[in-house]
Amino acid sequence: MRRAWIALLALGLTSCAEFRNFPCFHCAHTTYAKEPGGSTCHTCLRENVWSVCPACGFEEAQPGWGPFRCSACGIQAHAAKCRTCSTVAFAREPVTSCPACVRPPAASNAALKKDARAHAERGEWEAAIEAYGAALRLDPKDAAARYALACVLSRAGRTDRALDELERAVADGYANWDLLRKDPDLAPLRSHPRWAGLLKRVPNE
Predict the structure, then answer these.
(1) Chain center to CA of 12
(2) Residues 172 and 143 sit within 8 Å (Cβ to Cβ)
(3) Could you tell me the pTM of the whole model?
(4) Residues 35 and 49 sit within 8 Å (Cβ to Cβ)
(5) Between β-strands 37-40 and 30-33, what pairing exists: parallel, antiparallel or unpaired?
(6) What share of the chain is helix, strand, coil (3-state, %, to 5)?
(7) Separation between Cα atoms, residue 197 and residue 180, nearest integer Å
């Protein structure tokens, strides 16, 4: 145990509170690791793998990489170390891709608009503006999304940009004129000098 503390002090650590400890698989003396992965026992100097069971969350040391059986719940699991970033992953099936290296799939235009609507319903204007902006970067000609962005910008008090987006929405084919005239989200824009000019572009249907 004393050697363990000496090893920690040698690393320049003021506290082991950030570290996790478990009995070494080889000699049963307590060893330490900061995160799941390889850890050399400070007593016998042999390598352990600190594993977190993907089924029950039990933490224990294993003798090395590859398959292991959780001593708490008995499931067979696997440990793999990414060759690119050295992240350690534990799974019930052999790991084929590194969760730290593999980028998540890009959000779709529809998913981003759904997120934007959810933010807008909660009055989270800046988050909604960002989400609609991301959706429009994927589909710049989405007139309905641009109209919705104009509504959110109007609610956020960003009148000039709201009018910019509204004018572009109309230019891109937005044609729900009745909603445009009556939409309460656009009320802050109707006193702006540019509003009258915008209405001149709307058919009198």
Answers:
(1) 33
(2) yes
(3) 0.51
(4) no
(5) unpaired
(6) 40, 20, 45
(7) 14
- pLDDT at residue 46 in the model: 82
User: CA-to-CA distance for 21 and 32, rounded, in angstroms?
Assistant: 4
Place of tokens 């170390």: 81
pLDDT one-digit tens code per residue, 77-131: 877 777 677 777 777 777 667 766 766 666 888 999 999 999 999 999 999 999 9
- Spell 105-141 as b/e; 16+ CB within 10 A means b: eeeeeeebbebbeebbeeebbebbbbbbbbbbebeee
Helices (H), the chain: 2-10, 109-121, 125-138, 143-155, 159-171, 177-182, 193-199
Dist. CA 121–CA 140, nearest whole Å: 23
Contacts of 32 (CB under 8 A, 6+ apart): 4, 7, 8, 16, 19, 20, 21, 39, 42
> What six digits make up the tokens of 135?
């959706």
**The pair of three-digit structure tokens given for residue 130, joined into one six-digit string:** 């960002």
33 SS3 class:
strand
Question: What residue has token string 């320049």?
Answer: 12
173, two tokens: 């084919």
Report CA torsion sign: 74, 80, 86, 89.
Answer: negative
